[in-house]
User: Which sequence fits this backbone?
């Protein structure tokens, strides 16, 4: 890793290729056991240990997530819909991801909301298609919907694994 004059790391090894983090990593988080534990969030400068008993400043959502953890939760938001989709409850998985990890990361929240909206939209389209089965047009609509669901859910999971944003097509934006 490259070192700057202040002793802080300029890049983060868990980031996307080509991405630059402006937030420096304290020496204590770089794996240097001899480095003093400092916390820029608490106003400490590099080389100044935090006061004993001072809790780290994390935000309202709990501990911050690493990029790897954020991508895993994002993937889970998309793929968890498969777990209960066969009983028309595909929205439960993305809803659970939103409730469990959505407050800890804006990235996870965006992916969970997108997956939740898509699964709710698919539920609406499936009900409409099921009604239209009576006049036989619903059968090809259900098949097309199943193919759309499979392909776009995998695309969403791949985008989340790469740290990219993803928007599902034909989605009714119910949750923001």
Assistant:
């Amino acid at each position: 890793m490259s070192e700057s004059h202040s002793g802080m790391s300029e890049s983060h090894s868990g980031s996307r290729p080509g991405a630059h983090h402006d937030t420096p990593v304290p020496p204590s988080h770089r794996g240097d056991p001899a480095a003093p534990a400092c916390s820029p969030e608490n106003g400490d400068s590099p080389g100044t240990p935090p006061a004993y008993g001072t809790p780290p400043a994390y935000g309202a959502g709990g501990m911050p997530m690493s990029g790897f953890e954020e991508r895993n939760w994002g993937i889970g938001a998309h793929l968890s819909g498969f777990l209960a989709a066969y009983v028309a409850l595909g929205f439960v998985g993305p809803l659970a991801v939103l409730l469990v990890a959505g407050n800890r990361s804006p990235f996870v929240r965006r992916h969970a909301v997108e997956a939740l909206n898509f699964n709710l939209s698919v539920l609406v389209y499936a009900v409409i298609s099921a009604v239209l089965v009576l006049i036989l047009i619903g059968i090809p609509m259900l098949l097309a919907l199943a193919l759309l669901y499979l392909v776009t859910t995998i695309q969403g999971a791949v985008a989340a694994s790469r740290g990219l944003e993803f928007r599902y097509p034909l989605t009714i934006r119910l949750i923001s």
Notes: Residues 106-132 form the longest helix (27 residues). The chain has two domains: 1-57, 67-161.
